[in-house]
Amino acid sequence: MRKHGVKIWTVRAVLTLLALLVSGLLGAWLFLRGSLAQLDGRRTSTGLSAEVTVVRDAQGIPTISGSTRDDVAYATGFVHGQDRFFQMDLLRRVGAGELAELFGARAVPLDKSHRLHRFRARADATLAAMTPAERRFLERYAAGVNDGLAALASKPFEYALVSAAPRPWTPADSLLVVWAMYFDLQGMLEPRELARGWIRDNTSAAQLAFLLPEATAWDAPIDGDSVPVAASPLPESAPAWWGKPRKGEPTRIASADFVDSVGSNNWALAGSRSKDGAAIVSDDMHLGIQLPNTWYRLALRFPASDGTMRRVAGVSLPGAPPLIVVGSNGKVAWGFTNSYGDYLDLVEITTDPSRPGQVQTPAGWETPVRHEESILVKGEAAEKFEVRTTSFGPVREAGGRSYAIHWIAHSAQAINLNPMKFETVDTLDAALSAAATVGIPAQNFVAGDDQGNIGWTIVGTMARRAQPGIASTFPLTLENAGAGWQTALAPDAYPVLRNPPGGQLSTANSRQLQGAGAQVIGDGGFDIGARNRQVRDQLAALGAGADVAGVYGIAMDDRAVFIAPWRERALNVLDAAALDGKPQRAEFQRLLKDSWSGRASIDSVGYRLARHFMWSMHDVLYGAANGEMASLDEKAAAAAASSRWPAVVARLLDEQPAGWLPSSYRSWREVQLAAIDGVIEELTRDGKQLSAATWGERNTATIVHPIGNAVPFLKPWLSAPPDMLPGDANMPRVAGAKFGQSQRMTVSPGREEEGVFNMPGGQSGHPLSPFFLSGHRDWVEGKATPFLPGAAKHTLVLAP
């Protein structure tokens, strides 16, 4: 009887545990289900003037229709709040420097660097200066966000995992999201200037001019075939640091994790060259990619000033003012790429013991305003630190020097709601005029209208310099502070190009102009230009009568035009003598020859070897310098100082000057072989075979929800598949493990039904949503799916 009783109790205990487990899993599942967006039905919402309908297609892409723009803003906030609130929360916290409240002490250093700019206080001031209509627009959006969040049966799942409660949305938060994009798009300006300052301080004038050229043969400006800048004379000798390794590291270092995160392409074809006579505009903005995707697709319908219903389609940025960022309004289509102009100065400030508490700036001696900032830290006491602000901006330290950060993002013109003008402009000229009034991080604006006109300008806040030129790309001293920016640039001073003779325009983050307008923009870190040259040449090759499919196809161009010369250089030094007794070098040579497709294709070993060879040469020559620059800022490096370094190294390999040969090598041939050996060492580590080092093996997507990185056991459910991706930097099809084409769009205004679009993630940030990864496979494969939302599958009505 005792044994029988024990068995009964054992069975009961097991059944009880199973019941508890099932109950727990069911509860967790129900909790997760409770935070899914409402797709159908009818809801009452206070503050609406009339009904608003939210019609979604099979991918969850909404068309929002309302009788006023404010009502549409409210409904946009509602769907953003339901589908993407946690993403929005992270963006406002990035802008304000408040991530540690969710993620603890590890986020404090980033929060401090961002809190230095006090953007939350600036957001409050900007909001107070807006018109009542502008504030009402942001208030309606915030009300929609909060009502959408409150309508969820349970809070977004991310908050349960970080043990926090979502904080209500405010109008000022939408401005912080735009400042978060300033960090993303202009955040390299400080480390770039510090890197350039270090190189200036550790070279002669002649060496500096050679190492940091203003242009190369790769540049492809939109107002000419090339930039007519003569190559600097080659100095007789190199700087003392040249060709030396970082301290404590071996002489040869193969770059295992190099990143080229400069991105975005856009181009336009005039109606004179299109099949139907309307302009065709294409755009693919390159950003860090995670889940959910940066962009949220939608179409908006609301009455225009003439009473007709206006339809605007494209992408929005959840949390930012509820506008179409890039898209088409039926009359005009437009796209952005980061402009990489000169929008920030580091101004060195000095002190004097006889003037305690004061600093000397270009404006004279002043007492910085001191602000005590308190950073809330999850699980720990708040961390307080002091921010000192001068008339030239907040103060930061680097390399034993103090600098005021004079950034256009601090200006009163940095953010406004003028991007809304693009929703209703009817002509290219109206769009170009509107662009010069917009307050966002400055972008290349390429647009076309339904009459076939195309044009380019800069959209966003630009800096006006009394003395434009190269001096402002280095840290400024009191003596040359006149090169710094003075005020925001007036709209009538923006450079503009309309209907160029060739009937095409393209930008890809490289130098835009060869003429006077180039000085107005300045150089804030232009890409080397190879990508835009490839785009431009492919666009020209389309000839006349092109259609949307042909124009879109350029975004899929992964030809290795830029890397091909590096393959040839490696093959040239791998002669019989170099291979004698070196079987791995022989294998390297074989793979360069046999596993080379001429593209950054996933099965190509040759592409990966040639690319690694280029970067290994960079590490051999710039290793010591990069180590020193990193002590100033972790992002400061030779590649940050100038993207044109490959052209500098290529010239040295072609001319092979004795004065620039690193002291530890006997010949330039030996330098190149050392770089090749470094690649071999890196790629065969841990017993790996060189033949297995395909480009796809290295270029495998790691697209993950932030919570997947914070809670590793959930990563499989919060990640996109680990697809091998063709494409790379310095070609139109930009693709990296977690950086690349965040969307692809090609559209002809007035013919939006023929337009195409895809992006790496779906509409929802919720892993149980059918829209979490909807469209991802199309993006991986480059499939041209429709630009406009499809047939209605769900309808939600928001009523007053």
From TrEMBL:
Annotated signal sequence range: none
Note on how the cofactor is bound: Binds 1 Ca(2+) ion per dimer.
Co-factor requirement: Ca(2+)
Active site positions, chain numbering: 264 (nucleophile)
Keywords: Calcium, Hydrolase, Metal-binding, Zymogen
Record has Calcium as a keyword: yes
Gene Ontology terms for molecular function: hydrolase activity, acting on carbon-nitrogen (but not peptide) bonds, in linear amides; metal ion binding
GO BP term (any one): antibiotic biosynthetic process
Transmembrane segments: none
Family annotation (InterPro entries): Ntn_hydrolases_N, Pen/GL7ACA/AHL_acylase, Penicillin_amidase_A-knob, Penicillin_amidase_dom1, Penicillin_amidase_N_B-knob, S45
Residues that hold Ca(2+) according to the record: 193, 342, 345
A Pfam family of this chain: Penicil_amidase
Family: Belongs to the peptidase S45 family.
Protein name: Penicillin acylase family protein
Organism for this UniProt entry: Massilia polaris
Lineage: Bacteria, Pseudomonadati, Pseudomonadota, Betaproteobacteria, Burkholderiales
